[in-house]
Amino acid sequence: MIARFPGPPPQPRVNPLGLALALHSEASQAEHEESLAWVRWMFQSIRIRRDAIVFESAARERDALIADWQQFAEGLWQSALAPTLLAAWRAAEANDVRGLLAAGEALNGLLPETARERSAAAGELLLRATQGASHQGVLGRLRHEIENSRSEAHLVIVWAAVAVLFQMPAADILTEYLREEWLTALREHPHPQEPQGPLSFSAMMHRALRGYGVDQGFAS
C-alpha cells in the first residue's frame, strides 16, 4: 500500500523541485504521480529550512564545487552514509525498529559533530512532515521510539522508513538521498546543475549497491 498523508500540496502535478523518482512497483499511474508529489513535498520541507544536510560547500566556481562533491563521495558518503542508509533500508523492510535505531546510533560515531547535528535536524523535519500519515507502519514505531528516547532522528534513518512506505527500492532511496544532499547545499548556488560521470547520483548509487552487496535486480 502507498502511504496516505493528509492535505496534499496544491497542484501536485507541478514539480517545484525538479526531482525525478522511479517507483518500481505495480502501482497505477495515478498512485505513482501521487507518491512522487508527496516525496517532493516532504523534501521541500527540509530544503526551505536547511542550508545543508551533511554535504556542504563554500565554493562558487563549478570546478571547486565538484571537487568538494568528490571529497564527499569518497569520504562520508562511502564510509558512513551509504552503508547506514542501506542498513536502515534493510531494517525498515523487516519492520525492525531496533535495527533502525542501531543504524542511527552507529552513524553518530561516523559523522563530525556539525554534520551530525545537521543530519539529525533534517531528520526531525522529515518526521514532522510525515506525522499525519494514516498508515505509519515502521515509521510510526520509529517515531514513537525517538520521541521516548534520546535517539537522534538522522535523515537517512527516517528517510529509509518513509521510503519503505512508498515501496521504493534501494536504488531510488540512495539516488534521491544524494539528490537532496546536493540540492539542499546548492539551493542558492549559481551552478546547481547535477554532477555528471563517476560523480553523478546514479554512478554513486551503483557503486554503493555493489560495495555493500545489494542485489541490483532486487534493489531496482
Compact description:
With 220 residues, this protein is mainly α.
Task: Give an account of the 3D structure.
With 220 residues, the chain is mainly alpha-helical. It has a single domain (29-54, 61-211), classed as Urease accessory protein UreF. It has 9 helices and no strands. The protein has helices at residues 29-47, 62-93, 97-108, 113-129, 137-147, 155-165, 170-185, 201-211, 216-219. Helix 2 runs antiparallel to helix 3 and helix 7 packs across helix 8 (201-211). The longest helix has 32 residues, at 62-93. The two termini are 18 Å apart. Mean pLDDT is 83; it is low at 1-27.
CATH superfamily: Urease accessory protein UreF
| Structural class category | mainly alpha
Strand percentage lies at under 5%
The largest pleated sheet is described as: none
Mean pLDDT: 83
- CATH class designation: Mainly Alpha
Number of helices: 9
